[in-house]
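Dear support,

I submitted the protein below through the web form. The confirmation email said the job was done, but the results page showed an empty box. After a refresh the structure appeared. I'm attaching both so you can tell me whether what I see now is the final result or a partial one.
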Amino acid sequence: MARTAPPVPVGPSRWELPDPRDCDAEGLVGVGGDLAPATLVDAYASGVFPWPHGRLRLPWFSPDPRAVVQLDELHVSRSLRRTLRRSGWTTTLDAAFDDVVRCCGVDRPEGTWITPAMARAYARLAQLGWAHSLEVWDGDRLVGGVYGVLVGTVFTGESMFHRADDASKVALHDLCARLSEAGGTLLDAQLPTPHLASLGFRTWSRERFLDHLEAARDGQVRPCTDRLPVERLV
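What the results page shows now:
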């Protein structure tokens, strides 16, 4: 069974991040800095992520509350179980990172925060073993996926997409299974939405999330990268 390599140490950031416990009501921690690997890893290890929008120059957030799901608590509906049994789909980890990021950044009526600079920064994190993608395949066709950053035993999802019904849900379910098998503890989706709530995500206070992250960020999780059938998840 093939597994991800340990992440490459990136050293401390050249920036001193503000304490997210002291950020404002909107979750804005600070503005500026850069998207260097060390900056991003330090930020995620502190419960902070970049979220470009508006005219702010590279804003960084730590929302309150936070949308999270423990890996064995993702809701699997009847329709999703049928998809897992009948689709014939397979999944991989880290087989098409750039393609997943590109697909996540297109065809969004509300626009996208996945700027070319963001895509390049996360591609570099993937090369260093900190960012990962989960791909869902219908034969050789990429039909769904999710990508994010793994620090310790906590995976923070950045974005997901689907080009077939249920494909993004399959991606989340498969990702949770791979992380759980490897010793992961939590999937963080950052901002709560009704859709995430329907999938079993709960809201944790910022304080609770940061406490969990502090205890979990020194762990090591090396999920399986093999191509696997989705029916195993039923």
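Response: this is the final, complete result; the empty box was a page-load delay. The radius of gyration is 17 Å.
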